[in-house]
Write a structure and sequence with these properties.
Number of strands: 2
Oligomer: single chain
Number of helices: 12
Strand order of the largest sheet: 1-2
Radius of gyration: 21 Å
Shape: globular
Structural class: mainly alpha
Distance between the termini: 16 Å
Strand content: under 5%
Number of domains: 1
Largest sheet: 2 strands, antiparallel
Length: about 325
């Protein structure tokens, strides 16, 4: 509990300091290295070599198996390294173990980083600097930002905060509460592999399929739990602001929670959209290819930069409520034992 509390406070105070090695960056580099080793060849090379008779294009089944080999390797390495780091630190001294555990917990959570990056977009737009906003937005979204107007950029930022309230904050916090940094880092490995490999395109349709499906499984419960925490946060914040509605959050969540290509993403997006009375979704471009996303929420209010701030408040309040509830459960269980 000391390590968990300290790690959460560190994340809220400093986030991810630049210039310091980050374990998630290490996981990303390992994924890239394994992909280069396991992925047969590029599609173009495969077509050229197959015409010459020197290469047989891998079957979908083989590509899925290769993707699974990458996935299981990354999982094992991430878990073992985390376990070894903690074991070595605790062998040196209990305080050293607590310190390492707290730092790893800080790295696992991303509340402060999500706030900082989304607020850069908010402040850019408030200054009227749309080009800077596009550049900053491109750091946190995968869509083509050059095609977005101001409204589109605000919507993209709110969607990112809403989705990552689960993926970047509450889900990793839940796994860390349940299994410490070992389980928390395992979740980050799963999430990172999905963000790098889980695409529906020629390269990753089969190679990244296992990574995408595994992420859906790992996020199934946390995403739904996160939606309820957002609704609870809307109830709390609604006491101080008429711009946030818990009733609206619940109504839109009930109606739109399945309106997404992902089985989990619309859970938090619908709760956030409903609480703010805005509409998310619509057409987005990825690599020049249009992707039509179902509309989530009602267009009761004109979306504006203030909604990025509101989305962040919902995120921070959700994290606080989750920590309070699970902390209380922990104390009750300890007292009972």
């Amino acid at each position: 509990m000391i390590a968990l509390v300290t790690g959460c406070v560190l994340d809220l105070c400093i986030g991810d300091p630049h210039g310091i090695p980050h374990p998630v960056v290490g996981i990303g580099r390992m994924i890239s290295a394994l992909e280069k080793r396991l992925y047969p060849v590029s599609r173009t090379e495969a077509e050229e070599e197959s015409r010459e008779g020197s290469f047989i294009v891998p079957s979908p089944g083989r590509m899925i198996r290769l993707g699974f080999r990458l996935w299981i390797t990354v999982m094992i390495v991430a878990v073992l390294i985390t376990m070894l780091m903690l074991a070595a630190a605790y062998l040196i001294h209990p305080y050293a173990g607590i310190a390492v555990e707290a730092v790893l917990t800080c790295y696992i959570l991303a509340a402060r980083s999500l706030y900082d990056e989304s607020m850069k977009v908010c402040k850019d737009l408030e200054r009227g600097d749309t080009e800077a906003a596009r550049g900053d937005l491109s750091m946190i979204v995968g869509r083509d930002t050059d095609r977005l107007d101001e409204t589109g950029m605000i919507r993209a930022a709110v969607e990112t905060v809403a989705e990552n309230t689960s993926d970047g904050v509450l889900a990793p916090l839940l796994y860390t509460i349940l299994g410490g940094p070992v389980l928390g880092m395992m979740y980050k490995a799963v999430n990172t592999m999905d963000s790098m490999l889980g695409y529906h395109n020629d390269r990753y349709e089969y190679f990244g399929r296992f990574a995408a499906k595994a992420d859906d499984v790992f996020n199934f419960v946390p995403s739904r739990m996160s939606a309820w925490f957002i609704m609870a946060s809307a109830a709390v914040l609604g006491l101080f602001s008429n711009d946030i509605s818990a009733a609206g959050a619940y109504r839109i969540w009930r109606r739109d929670r399945q309106k997404h290509l992902s089985p989990n993403s619309a859970q938090t997006e619908s709760a956030c959209a409903g609480s703010l009375g805005i509409r998310l979704g619509g057409t987005s471009y990825y690599g020049g290819v249009p992707v039509e996303k179902p509309a989530i929420g009602d267009d009761n209010r004109q979306i504006e930069t203030a909604h990025i701030r509101y989305a962040n408040r919902l995120m921070f309040t959700s994290e606080l409520l989750m920590f309070i509830i699970f902390g209380a459960l922990y104390l009750i269980v300890r007292k009972g034992l």
